[in-house]
């Protein structure tokens, strides 16, 4: 199975809620973190920052690497790295048509949300099993 390396950002509001985007396409309807595939010449932190800028129109500062987890999707193994990030400039606004909503969720709300991407499910599980240090 082919591997794809991805990176994204966990952006928290003042109450510790996580910012997610709602993907609404013919192939997927789910809440997910801002992030995406690594491009040639990038390190993972650069990928996460670029993807946030492309998807939300904001600049972020990487605080630290939070962890990583793989999942299977579309006959690929997706190796995903999470970074904690803070907003440096801008207000998060959806920039791509594949997303139709933007919302902050508490961790407890995420635990009860049934419409999460595999990556977000992994993130929430890592938070509750204490392997994610925010």
Detail the topology: elements first, then pairings.
Blueprint: E1 2-11, E2 18-24, E3 29-32, E4 35-37, H1 44-56, E5 59-73, E6 76-89, E7 99-105, H2 107-112, H3 118-128
Parallel strand pairs: 1-6
Antiparallel strand pairs: 1-4, 2-3, 2-7, 5-6
Fill in the keyword field for this structure.
134 residues, alpha+beta, Nucleoside Triphosphate Pyrophosphohydrolase, 4-stranded mixed β-sheet, 3-stranded antiparallel β-sheet, 45% strand
Q: What can be said about this structure in brief?
A:
This protein has helices at 44-56, 107-112, 118-128, and strands at residues 2-11, 18-24, 29-32, 35-37, 59-73, 76-89, 99-105.
The appropriate CATH architecture is Alpha-Beta Complex
Mind telling me the CATH superfamily name? Nucleoside Triphosphate Pyrophosphohydrolase
SS-derived structural category: alpha+beta
Measured by DSSP, the beta-strand proportion falls in: 35-45%
Mean pLDDT: 96
CATH topology: Nucleoside Triphosphate Pyrophosphohydrolase
Helical content class: 10-25%
Number of domains: 1
Straight-line N-to-C gap: 32 Å
- The low-confidence parts are none
What do these coordinates show?
Helices cover 22% and strands 45% of the residues. The protein is α+β, with helices and mostly antiparallel strands and 134 residues long. The protein has one domain (2-128): Nucleoside Triphosphate Pyrophosphohydrolase. The chain starts with a strand and ends in a 6-residue tail after the last helix. 27% of the residues are buried. The model has no long low-confidence stretch (mean pLDDT 96).
């Amino acid at each position: 199975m082919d591997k794809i390396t991805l990176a994204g950002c966990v952006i928290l509001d003042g109450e510790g809620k996580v910012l997610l985007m709602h993907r609404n396409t013919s192939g997927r309807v789910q809440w997910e973190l801002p992030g995406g595939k690594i491009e040639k010449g990038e390190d993972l932190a650069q990928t996460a920052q670029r993807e946030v800028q492309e998807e939300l129109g904001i600049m972020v500062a990487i605080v630290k690497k939070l962890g990583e987890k793989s999942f299977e999707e579309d006959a690929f193994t997706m190796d995903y790295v999470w970074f904690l990030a803070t907003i440096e400039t801008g207000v998060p606004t959806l920039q791509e048509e594949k997303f139709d909503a933007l919302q902050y969720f508490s961790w407890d709300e995420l635990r009860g949300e049934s419409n999460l991407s595999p990556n977000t499910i992994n993130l929430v599980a890592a938070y509750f099993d204490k392997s994610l240090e925010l």
